[in-house]
Amino acid sequence: MLGIGIFVIPPEIAEYAQQTPLFLSLWLLGGVIAFAGADAFSELGAAYPKAGGDFTFQQRAFGASMAFATGCVLFLGVFGGSIAAVAVPIWEFQVSMLTGIDGRAPLFSFSGITLSTAQFGAAMLVVALTLINCTQSRNWAGLQIGLTVTPLFLLICLALFSLGSTEVTAEAPATTFETHVSVSGLVSAYVGIYFAYSGWNAVIYLAGEVKSPERTIPVSLIGGTVLVTCLYLLLCWSFVATLGMEGLAKSGEAGSAMAAKISPAYGEPIMGLLIACALLASLNASIMGGARIAYAMSKSGVFPNLFATVHPESKQPVKALLFQSVWVLLLIISGTFH
Q: Are 331 and 337 in contact (CB under 8 A)?
């Protein structure tokens, strides 16, 4: 769940909401709706702890045809496209900011296809994470924990520091605009918030590998959603306290703007590193989940049987992971993931 959304969406929501109570209420509403989904999926995941998530549930409810359509959309579009759409911006923005390398600069051309530095770096990143996921589960699970806990802890510290800094909050401008709040604007705002909360159901795609699923799946889905909701509210409050509603609406990317206000010299690079960690965690989770959809579809007989096996040593769906990486590389090279 913790990804780029909480940094790029708040300025858009601030422009629509224009008032601090309404701004925070919209984020709380997004968390409540995500919690409702997590509650429903926790029961489904505990009852049917198998790989594939939505595909598995829809197969039982609607049959193979509907499940096949859902699985293809999830595997090829949602997960495949998301992996490419996260990997490339990591190099275009975070890596470029931290290293000074122009991610959009052409690297080389072949048969009329020009590959940028960011596309090449994204492709190598996807390959590296895929290979890690092909090994023992403790390797990719440990990586996921590290990439999630580190930015989570540091973002909480940064938000609390900004809220406790009288020097910063004293400069915060007024919390209202002089313009009208429209219903269509609030609907558009919620669409952005929905994107920021997406990922609350990610663990169900790996439900078949979870120990004690009847307990672990509800705890992870519900507990994770509550934790991220609290974090988002804390961050949004700190954004407003530091930048003000009008300043937040004009910030473009709230995390870097807040960090630069707190520490002009070091704030922006530190926030860039935290965002990069959060994006890597999101990328790794998408690689894990997407491959399980292809694996589940193959196990159910609606996808080539080639991907229905796991490696005898690592117990991971290696063929599904490699097939997914090839598809994502094609999306990255062609640039058709937008």
A: yes
What is d(CA 259, CA 85) in angstroms, rounded to the nearest whole number? 25
Other CB atoms closer than 10 Å to residue 284's CB: what's the count?
Answer: 22
Task: With beta carbons less than 8 A apart as the criterion, state whether 6 and 232 touch.
Answer: yes
The tokens describing 197, both together, are: 């909360």
Environment class of 305 (CB within 10 Å of its CB; exposed 0-12, middle 13-18, buried 19+): exposed
**Residues 37/199, Cβ–Cβ less than 8 Å:** no
For residue 186 the two structure tokens come to 């609030």
The residues, any chain, with a CB within 8 Å of residue 82's CB and separated by 6 or more, are 286
**Are 54 and 301 within 8 A, CB to CB?**
no
Residues 6+ apart with CB under 8 A from 225: 1, 31, 34, 35, 38, 197, 200
Structural tokens at position 27: 């984020």
3-state secondary structure of 116: strand
* Angle at CA of residue 88, ends 103 and 297, nearest 5°: 165
Give exposure, 28-40, as e/b (b: 16+ Cβ within 10 Å): bebbebbbeebee
pTM summary value: 0.86
CA 328 to chain centre: 16
Whether 190 and 29 have beta carbons less than 8 Å apart is answered as: yes
pLDDT band at 338 (very low <50, low <70, confident <90, very high): low
Give me the residues paired with residue 106 across strands: 116
Residue whose pair of structure tokens reads 């596309």 in the numeric block: 119
The single residue listed with the structure tokens 């080539």 is 304
User: pLDDT per residue over 43-73, tens digit each?
Assistant: 999 999 988 888 999 999 999 899 999 999 9
Q: What is the pLDDT of residues 267-280, one digit of tens each?
A: 888 888 988 998 99
Q: What is the DSSP string of 251-290?
A: -SSHHHHHHHHH-TTTHHHHHHHHHHHHHHHHHHHHHHHH
Distance CA 253, CA 159 (A): 15
CA distances from residue 310 to 143, 209, 292, 314 in whole angstroms, order as listed: 21, 12, 11, 8
